Amino acid sequence: MPPRKPAIPEIEPKIFRTVDEIDRALMKLERRIREIEDIDFVAARRDHTGVDKAARSNLQNAILEIYGPNSPEYKKHQYIDFWAGPMFLNMEPHQEIEGRENGRRQAIGIIKGLIGGLKEKREDLEGGERPSPTSYFEKLNLHPRIADVARDLFHDSHHFDAVFAASKALVNYVKERSGRHDLDGTGLMRTVFSKNAPVLAFNDLSDQTGLDEQEGMMHLFEGAVLAIRNPGGHAFPEGSEQRAIEYISLLSLLAYRVQEAKKRPKP
After folding, report:
1. 20 to 30 Å CA-CA from 29: which of 73, 134, 180, 244?
2. Is residue 85 pLDDT above 90, yes or no?
3. Residue 7: band (very low, low, confident or very high) from pLDDT cuts 50, 70, 90
4. What's the start-to-end Cα distance of the chain, in Å?
5. What's the pTM value of the predicted model, to 2 decimals?
6. How many other C-beta atoms lie within 10 A of the C-beta of residue 266?
7. 213 with 203: CB under 8 angstroms?
8. Average pLDDT in the 89-94 region?
9. What is the CA radius of gyration of the chain?
10. Which contiguous run of DSSP H or E holds residue 72?
11. pLDDT at 4 over 80
């Protein structure tokens, strides 16, 4: 009796049930675009770095995670590669690079097509809902020191882990700009931003208004330590996605003020 042929899995289109689910998928695909855009195919070929292979694997895995193994999208793009055009033996290096550059453009075009489809699904699903904070995280122009540590955690729904990471990044940034690595916590903030002999000053401290601003900013930095970083190291209370993005925005503002502050000479 001849062996039975294995059953072919039925096509199972992915059903997105919430706007947040679609937003997480969009962020994953947008990260893949940035990763692909950053590939240096010349260096990858010359130095055998493997960054192109890693980016291809990340893209294939993202499509699998978003749509599922039996989805039309994964069936169509599971072998997506950064190559477009003819391929033959003994190709010249410039011909190979040209094929990979064409493949890069083609892959990015495919991803943008998937993103467009997801945005249509979101519009259908969203109705009158307000956009999720996740959907505008990248539009907030957060300070790079804050965004770099918070982005992936926030997009992966670890919202208050992102807040804690951002608060630690702010403290480290103050240490770096001031050179006071011997201090931490509120002691660091009171020393660095003191209105009497600050290490970092927000203005020229020439009048009472300037002194008041300096003292007020010092208290804001103290508050960031006492109310955000310190609780985050123990049992920071979980809250809404909206509240998390508000905390992160505050920490970003403080990071920008650190960047703008002038280092004063030692007395």
Report:
1. 244
2. no
3. low
4. 95
5. 0.52
6. 6
7. yes
8. 88
9. 25
10. helix 72-77
11. no
